[in-house]
Amino acid sequence: SPLARAQAKLAQRLQIFLDKSVPKRAERWSAYACVALVYAIRAYFLRGYYIVTYGLGIYNLNLLIGFLSPRNDPESLRASNDGDDGPSLPTSNEQEFKPFVRRLPEFKFWWMSLKSIGTAFAMTFMPMFDIPVFWPILLMYFIMLFFMTMKQQVKHMIKHKYVPFTTGKPKFAGASAGG
């Protein structure tokens, strides 16, 4: 049908745009900041939709935790190895370079965050989502939740000795370039 073809063509164009935007990290996050600012201004002037904004904050906090977490959590790996069936090969070498692999890659983090702001923005046009609440309580609860979650995440990083930002394979001085 013509509608299905138009939808497929639109989806293809979106995918082409997303593929071209992958290497442009600064531009993507700048665009995200602009969209977030537009949402914040709209929410401020509407003086409502606090539940929507709170939900947006909680969802993005969840995405941030996924972004900062390793794909293979050391605690879950240790728990799965407790019931060993016998000897196994070593799984790590302390001298081997292992870049940090995220549970949620940066591009997916950006795209899911952008979609969440778009969804929240659309919800601000529907009065049924403007539920009256006392917003300072939501704000305080979100701030407490944010700091408690980040504290737990930092403790996890320290305990398992990982940093979620890698700058590449370490370079050692003294090796000659040729020869």
UniProtKB/TrEMBL annotation:
Coiled coil: none annotated. Its main location: membrane. It is found in: Membrane. Keywords: Membrane, Transmembrane, Transmembrane helix. The chain crosses the membrane at residues 51-68, 133-150. Pfam families: Rer1 (PF03248). One of its GO terms (biological process) is protein retention in ER lumen. It is a multi-pass membrane protein. The keyword Metal-binding does not apply. GO terms for cellular component: endoplasmic reticulum; Golgi membrane. PANTHER family: PROTEIN RER1. This is Protein RER1.
